[in-house]
Amino acid sequence: MSTYHSKRAKEFLKNPKKVERHDRTFWSLRQKRDAAAAQLPEWEDLREHASRIKEHTATHLADYLEQFTNSLERNGVIVHFAKDAQEFNEMVYGILESHKVKKLVKSKSMLTEECEMNPYLIKRGINVVESDLGERILQLMHLKPAHIVMPAIHLTRDEIGEMFEEKGISKEKGNHDPAYLTRCARENLRGDFMDAEAGLTGCNFGVAATGDCVVCTNEGNADMSTSIPKLHIVAMGIEKVIPDYDSLAVFQRLLARSGTGQPSTAFTSQFRKARPGGEMHVILVDNGRSDMIANKEHWMTLKCIRCGACMNTCPVYRRSGGYSYSYFIPGPIGVDLGMLKNPKQHSGNVSACSLCLSCDCVCPAKVTPGSQIYRWRQSLETYGTENKEKKVMAEGMKVVYENYHIYDALLRNSSVANHIPESLMDIKLNPWSIGHTMPKFAKKPFHVIFKHAMEEMKHE
Amino acid sequence: MPEKMMEGIKYQDVVQQFIEMSHTVGCEVIEAKADDDINELIQKAYPDAKVLASNVEGIKANLNPDTVAKAQDLNGTDVGIIQGDIAVAENGCVWLPQTMKERVVCFISENLVILVQRDKIVNNMHEAYKKIHMTDYGYGCFISGPSKTADIEQALVMGAQAARGVTVIIM
Amino acid sequence: MRVGLFIPCYVDALYPHVGVATFKLLKKLKVDVVYPERQTCCGQPMANGGFQRMSDHLAERFEDKFKDFDYVVIPSVSCAAFVRVNYPQILDHECQTPKKTVELVEFLHDVLKVKELPGSFPHVVSVHNSCHGVRELTLSTPSEFQEKPTNKIVELLKLKEGITVKEPDRKDECCGFGGMFAVEEAYVSTAMGTDKVKRHMDTGAEIITGSDSSCLMHMQGIVAKNHYPIKFMHVAEILAAGL
Questions:
Q1: Which Gene3D superfamilies match (chain B) (predicted)?
Q2: Does pLDDT of A67 surpass 70?
């Protein structure tokens, strides 16, 4: 009965202390989100606006991309269009090579994760330095992000502290105070900012009317990455374009409040031109997005602004961790994005949802990730990836429920099952017995009791 | 598209709300009086500062982001003093349009002093985005408090990669 | 007003007393209620598992059996939500039952507008807000929404004399049942259920109550396995107490 996700989740759940901390950490983010949203009487209205702006942009994407490109080019920005990950990586490398770049500092970008840009560049001799603290920690530990906003939050201060000692980043042995470790990382990264020849950032929003590439960070690392080197590369999925500043205001207000409960990220940086004497490149990446927008049942997944709120509220994510999912983005939105990307490969995540729909209610762009998962479940048969044992169960139910005489006979006799000893039920084949005692069947089902009662009434 | 654009929350006293939010996001706030000497206020706020960087008229500084040879020369700045533009009451954001050759002064300085005109404080981001402008440098940034991170066990630490402390002076 | 009563398959088999309490309660409130014969399941278990196509015959049958009633009342939120939200996608023709189907608490609160109930229930209960009741039927305001919180289950329970009504911390976090989710993701489901039960117990309640026996069944299974000292009752049983 197990899926990719359920097997990994089982492993994760073997460490109850870690699970408890993980659950508490992300639930506290959900609470902070609630508190921030409660400050704004227009909160639900904001979500509706965000949803409609994204819907509008998705249905007029070609026009807005053209407008965005024109705005950028007017300001001397060089715009590229990459159809897939391979082309994107080649383009980034091409730009770096032509500027003889040895070291690239970058801020957080889920797109570069998606395209696996870092290994591509490293293999070709580029020293790629992640500058977001969480991402830097993961890079040094050779780990993948476990959350899109707080990528390294699953690690403990001791794990990080020991690694810092080993790498010579921290000097005081045994001092694993987060403030101290953060200061060590700051000093260490400062050197990289000083001598990197290029900076790369993602892009949260691309404003078509003005050509602004808007990057939201708390650390200021996107600005550090792009204010010293002369070369700035922006990596951006085509769905990130929005019409204008009025729209930007809506998303800027929603993003941080939804993700971390802050009223704003510390930095909302808006780039529309290269530094004096420098060069700015924007690479617009499709990598399957055009097909996703054309998908009638699931295009809304691309309304996502990557705030992480759906993960924070997801009771399954909180108790199974980011590494239990096969796609690099975990949680409800990750289940959906993985299915859009490669349904056969990522079907094993579709079980990771109890359909509680809390994510539908927190999502600032009304992506409805949980309802999307319900729909993906319905399509697993077409990919041949449905859970076969579960299908047998469902088929069995269908036969019983559709044939009243079988149903009736079963229910009249089912209380016999109550006499099966518990020890016989506690077998591997019965996943219910992992956490539960079997429910007891009634001696007489309701429909029998009812019939008898009615007959008695007639006789009276 | 939605037919009507968002209006957004309005506050009875935008200045008070801005001050409150600035504190929430980790700023110090000084309300300057008409006869206050700004240089003295900065000196009092950062008595140990040795290297000050600014291109704001009338501000005493050892380094000028307009005239340094390269961005790296601003490393080691104790306090950078910047002229802010629009400030936002709902979230403590201040719009810093690039008005200097080396914008890194806004990030590389250990501490940042942002000067804000009282009459430039607006209610919310909808109003702010109607009012901000870009200079010819083609870069601007809303800053809401010091650089921060909670990447290690969710412990909030000020001063990740950019300024560790921010003081807003309302004039 | 003619009301058709639908008793879901698992209530029929495992919790017939919930059906009895519901019927008794409706009768007491002078509702013209009918329990049509030969009913089984609404089709939800297969659909939630990813086999909605296996639910279409059951949906047709449900529509056929109940379309002429003024209301269809179901003492189970997830089944009522399934009919209301999913049937319009499953049935490829105009259908009546999604518009007419209400969950028991909704029916009492919104249709009958019950303002008093005889009988006392001198116990401390913790209300289990089932996800589909919260987020599809809005029996209570979802905690995600920034609106003034209301809760129809709590309001009704408070009509009973002597009752103390509590809600757990994280009042509408999922208990982890989710139909086949509980067997496919047994470990996560059990972890969710265990956390949920503990939060209910932390309220000091003697009884966990709710309007979905499937969530209650899941938690009851966990409670029995761990011998936790807490009991379960469907809302209908409490509302019908002492009638």
A1: NagB/RpiA/CoA transferase-like (3.40.50.10420)
A2: yes
